[in-house]
Write a structure and sequence with these properties.
Length: 389
């Protein structure tokens, strides 16, 4: 790729003007390659959409829970909601500028290059890079944006491409969530720039979000600063000692140790074990039922609770959630229905929300048992039996 033959078009992802600008540039320049800010998965979905192919509407909530991808699912659903909501207000589908680029590229017989990182990798790295407080802010702002009324405010998407406005938005994003900003903006700037540099053809038009244009150009001016691709696609969390995970793992281990020491000291622990099992089961059941689960989901959550407490890699909510998922069929239209939600109570009729609520409710119930009830009712008294007091 020759730098002097490269044109980078910064677009707003829900803008008819951006779509028209992209088409005009491609028709006029007839580049060898049109590089678009899409990964293979999103490109395929757009192609299926253009071809009128209906994709499978079923969402495997079971796999989401089993593979521990609840966080990614919630984040991607919220981002889809925001784009769809803006697109609905402006009467334009999200990704229209990318569709326009694809159609124009085919018309002038240009090659298409997919230059973005897989969205699942991006979201996982963003979640890994966010602190607990950043995630809490994300959830609270998500809920606020879904239920706050903004009907009186006109959305000027084109204004978002103004450099001054962009700088202001990016600075705000950076202040609210430095971890997410690093992954969603700076890392992707580097990845996109690296992908553009790897295009062998000379004449290229790159269609990217306006927020990435300046960052990409900075990396293209200083290609030595682009990190190795392997470091940008690794989803294993790195850096620092995971103290929270260590503490959470030590809790069940300490329970087992106390039981074992009490047994060695000749203390009758039969009733203590019974209390442990009963309290765990009750709290798993109550947490699930209070979150609105089916009775069979609550029973499953209660039955597995004692086992999940002493196994740090398992969570009772996964099991109650999987059972709930079998009772409630979830389809992609449930995501689309989020657009129609105006009040918090409207979520109650959404199957996705109900299943995730059961997962969280069961885990909260078991956590209360683990951190509050069991220590005071079982383990602290047992400890005093062993050492006096």
């Amino acid at each position: 790729m020759k730098r002097e033959c490269l044109t980078i078009i910064g677009t707003a992802h829900v803008s008819q003007e951006s779509a028209d600008e992209v088409k005009t540039a491609i028709y006029e320049q007839k580049p060898e390659v049109v590089a678009i800010e899409l990964d293979h998965g999103r490109y395929k979905r757009l192609m299926d959409q253009l071809a009128g192919i209906e994709e499978d509407d079923t969402i495997s909530v079971s796999n989401i829970i089993k593979e521990n991808k609840v966080g990614i699912f919630v984040a991607s659903t919220f981002l889809s909601y925001i784009q769809s909501k803006i697109g609905e207000d402006l009467d334009i589908k999200p990704g229209s500028e990318m569709i326009a680029a694809i159609e124009a590229a085919k018309d002038v017989e240009s090659k298409i290059a997919l230059i973005d990182r897989d969205i699942n990798i991006t979201l996982q790295r963003a979640l890994n890079n966010m602190s607990f407080m950043e995630k809490a802010k994300f959830l609270s702002s998500s809920a606020f944006s879904m239920f706050s009324s903004s009907g009186e405010d006109e959305i000027d998407v084109e204004e978002l491409k103004n450099p001054d406005t962009l700088d202001e938005v990016m600075e705000y994003f950076k202040n609210v969530s430095p971890g997410a900003y690093e992954v969603l903006v700076k890392e992707r700037d580097a990845y996109l720039a690296g992908s553009i540099l790897n295009i062998p053809e000379d004449h290229v038009i790159a269609v990217v979000g306006a927020g990435h244009k300046n960052g990409i150009m900075r990396y293209l001016d200083n290609p030595s600063k682009i990190p190795p691709i392997s470091s940008l696609v690794d989803v294993d969390k790195k850096g620092g000692i995971p103290w929270l995970k260590i503490i959470l793992a030590l809790i069940p281990i300490s329970f087992i140790v106390i039981f074992f020491l009490a047994f060695l000291n000749g203390i009758n622990i039969q009733w203590d074990i019974l209390d442990f099992v009963v309290i765990s089961m009750i709290m798993g059941f109550v947490g699930s039922i209070l979150s609105g689960s089916k009775i069979q989901s609550a029973i499953v959550g209660g039955v597995v609770a004692p086992l999940t407490i002493i196994h740090p890699l398992l969570a009772a909510g996964w099991f109650s959630g999987l059972t709930e998922a079998k009772c409630r069929k979830v389809r992609k239209r449930d995501i689309n229905n989020i657009l129609k939600i105006k009040k918090l109570r409207d979520l109650w009729s959404n199957n996705i929300f109900r299943i995730l609520l059961v997962v969280m409710g069961t885990n909260i119930g078991v956590s209360i048992a683990t951190l509050v009830i069991l220590p005071s009712r079982v383990f602290i008294p047992l400890f005093f039996k062993m050492f006096g007091g």
